[in-house]
Amino acid sequence: MLADSYGNAISTSSQAARDHYDRGLKLFLGGEYGALEAFRAAVNADPDFALGHAACARAAMMSAQIVEAKSANQRAQELVRNADTRERRHIDCIGLVLSGQAPRARAAVLAHVQTHPRDALAAQLCANVFGLIGFSGEVGREAELLAYTSSLLPHYGEDWWMMSMHALSLCETGQVEASRDLMENSLALNPRNANAAHFKAHAQYEAGETIAGRAYLTGWLADYDDRSMLHGHLQWHVALWALHQGDANAMWQAVDTGIAPGGAKGLPINVLTDTAAILYRAELAGLPVDPGRWLTLSDYAAQMFPQTGQSFADLHAALSHAMAGQGDRLAHIADSATGFAGDLVKPLARAWGAIARENWAGALNELIAVMPATERVGGSRAQRDLLELTYANVLLKLGLADEARRSLAIRRPILAGAPPLAGLT
Ligand SMILES: [Fe+2]
């Protein structure tokens, strides 16, 4: 029986299908463009290759091609009788994610990797910031992610993907130098691993290395296909550093060409969350933001996320609606937010509404419920700095500048030296 490059037996007798599958696996795990095309080639070479169809479903999901994802998943389910136990469980995990059963999918992956830790495409579902652990909404999910990658790491040896996943977990639990060292090892093995470039940038952000980080990531992006999974989000990191350096022109160029609706080619959750975050962080830093940008983003959010449920998206949608003056849309989220952190999205939505009305005391009252548990809303620490800066700005507007500085110094010391907040520098 043939095997993938992680040593997992795969139910195909076609060497061509195996080779295409393995190429897709590498591209997918590295966040590079072309994974879906490679997986499609695998099932073209062997139409009965169940795992190949499941991989198509997974890659289509990650490029927002949901119709194809569902049909590929259906085909994988039909062919599952040809698969072995490892493949059946792998296919089950992907099917659960695609059908929106995140808690069940998480439990299935955690059980599956106990017996098949090197089933990377299944293990990947729980890894990374936007994975099933990252979006669990649970207290301690950053520590849980670290425990997860710590348990898998010994099974992977000198593997660039797992190194980058564990390095990411280290970074998000404050072990920045250890993260950076491991990420450099990953990049030495695969310089085009976008996950490693991404979290090397996070380590640089956490270390306050604005100039070096911006230069590194700008150079790395020069060879990164703009259709790739992380392109828009990496542009967001560049835009953030440009903002911190006072280079508004470069920031707006990154927004317009790589981050915002119309310019970005990535997943809707990245387009919404990254655009909302950079627009509001620009406002907090004192840059004027055209109200038309907020209205465009509010329309995009209403179109792409008409129902609540993805809490990280919902909180950014609420920000967009508040800043665009779209009261009905904001009220829908504030009144009915569901999802893994819906209980936090509701007060956050009310806070954004109060902020838009310059009711700073009202905003503070709502944020008090959110700030002790921001980890639960999802996203990276760099992304959740949106909330830290929002909170500090509300304090500042209330005339509590010392309290605003103290809040940053206690909660996010990396922002305290030169806060990207007009009036507090
Ligand atoms: Fe990031």
Overview features:
Serine Threonine Protein Phosphatase 5, Tetratricopeptide repeat, 23 helices, TTC38, mainly alpha, two-stranded antiparallel ribbon, repeat, 425 residues, single chain, binds fe (ii) ion, Tetratricopeptide repeat protein 38
Percentage of residues in DSSP E strands:
under 5%
Number of domains: 3
Low-confidence stretches: none
Please estimate the helix content: 55-70%
Beginning-to-end CA distance, first to last residue = 63 Å
Structural Rg: 21 Å
Strand order of the largest sheet: 1-2
Main sheet, how many strands, which sense, barrel?
2 strands, antiparallel
- Mean pLDDT across residues: 97
Total strand count, please?
2
Order of helices and strands: EEHHHHHHHHHHHHHHHHHHHHHHH
Which ligands does the model contain, each kind named once? fe (ii) ion
**3D shape:** globular
Counting helices, strands and paired strands, the structural category is: mainly alpha
How many DSSP H or I helices?
23
